[in-house]
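So, can you check these tokens?
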Amino acid sequence: MTTLTPPQRDFSPTDQHDGDIRALSFSTPNLPVQAFQNGGQIEVGSRAIVVNPGVTPVPFYPSGLRDHIAPLGAAFLREVSLRSDTALVTLALDRLSAPADLCSAPGWRRLDTLPGMASVPGAAGLALFRSPRDRVTTIQATPDRLAPTLPPGPPHCWGVFMNLWFAPAGTACLIHNSHPFLEYHVQTSGDGAMQKFRRNDPSTLYENQNLAPGAAHGIYAVQPAGDGSFLYPWHQYVARTDCLWLAVELVPEGPAPRPHTSDTHTGQCCHH
């Protein structure tokens, strides 16, 4: 049994556990981020955000009652027990006092220094910072199970990648409408919002979704763009205060293996 940041005790990846566990590439002493590759029994002691990148609910048990983390969702938890047969990611928050300091950790880069971003209008000098990106697991699902607006089809494998973003208070993180993956975000620290627009124009705002720590928005109403990417509503993230959030990206990786080589109950592909 693995204990995640229990009171008065440091969490270490060498603790006893049921499934494989590793620190993600953007984990730091002030924000330990761990992937439980095969799930297992997890005891959450102190404050933590638990992310469920899979397509089945993950139960947890407050005071003996059964609750759950929704598929492709997250929860801000403390002092609960979880049991999962598939991958989970935990972000331990007790030591996170100055999220901006994470931007000086190895591998963090400002948006306009990322490949292909220097020429994007509005990106130059924008105070938006990204951590290293890490592959967490692979899931199996039909496209319409992940985003109901996608056409149905046979199950596919989707690589699940994660990274953190940071922006200081008042930052609007650029309106855009296309990605080569399906995405959702998990608020980690601060008060942020996802906004949708009718056009690439902030005056056409039609939806504002406030995000508090632990909140995850669902995958938006996307359509295939014809070149393998996905067309989204025009949208952007806005940092009301200094904000840290987790991006979860689902990258299509081709047809799923046949049933005898995959776990059809959990939706987990045979490779990780």
